[in-house]
């Protein structure tokens, strides 16, 4: 997901807009991450849920776990009740990009379940889509 996010930032900036890259807070203890062989975390700053309101839009990179978003992503989204109550995200653009370990790893279901959150927030969902005539790669 990190590599995809870096490429998305390049594209946004090439189009003349500003992009800021953040990571989502880890929810697993360090000893569990070590036992899993998880790679070390990058030095990218961790986003605070309330800071989502400071941006015009959100492109959320999501690792897929068993056909749905990873627990860390769900924890971030679940912490946005105050933003929902105040309408702070209403009208802002929203898109997702996902990464899975297999071809049929649940990419579409992960995006669909995330779109539900964005719809509740009143965000404008903007799917990345496919290039004309080639459904094997995402634009």
Give the topology, please.
Blueprint: H1 2-14, H2 30-36, E1 57-65, E2 68-69, H3 71-78, H4 81-86, E3 93-99, H5 107-121, E4 124-125
Parallel strand pairs: 1-3, 3-4
Antiparallel strand pairs: 1-2
Structure characterization notes:
- By secondary structure, the chain is of the alpha/beta class.
- Helix content is 35%, strand content 14%.
- The protein has a four-stranded mixed sheet.
- Strand 3 (93-99), helix 5 (107-121) and strand 4 (124-125) form a beta-alpha-beta unit.
- The two termini are 15 Å apart.
- 17% of the residues are buried.
- The model has no long low-confidence stretch (mean pLDDT 90).
Cα-based radius of gyration, to the nearest Å? 15 Å
How many strands appear in the DSSP assignment? 4
Which spans of ≥5 residues are poorly predicted at pLDDT below 50?
none
Widest sheet, order of strands: 2-1-3-4
Question: Helicity level, as a percent range?
Answer: 25-40%
Shape field: globular
What brief labels describe this structure?
139 residues, alpha/beta, four-stranded mixed sheet, 5 helices
In a nutshell, what does this entry contain?
The protein is α/β, with parallel strands linked by helices. The chain has five helices and four strands, in the order ααββααβαβ.
């Amino acid at each position: 997901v990190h590599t995809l996010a870096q490429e998305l930032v390049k594209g946004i900036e090439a189009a003349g807009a500003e992009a800021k890259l953040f990571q989502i807070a880890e929810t697993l203890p360090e000893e569990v991450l070590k036992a899993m062989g998880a790679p070390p975390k990058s030095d990218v700053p961790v986003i605070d849920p309330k800071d989502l309101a400071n941006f015009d839009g959100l492109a959320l990179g999501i690792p897929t776990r068993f056909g749905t978003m990873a627990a860390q992503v769900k924890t971030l989204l679940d912490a946005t009740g105050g933003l929902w109550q105040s309408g702070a995200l209403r009208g802002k653009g929203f898109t997702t990009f996902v990464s899975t370990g297999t071809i049929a790893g649940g990419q579409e279901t992960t995006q669909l379940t995330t779109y539900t959150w964005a719809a509740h927030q009143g965000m404008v969902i903007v799917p990345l889509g496919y290039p004309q005539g080639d459904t094997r790669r995402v634009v």
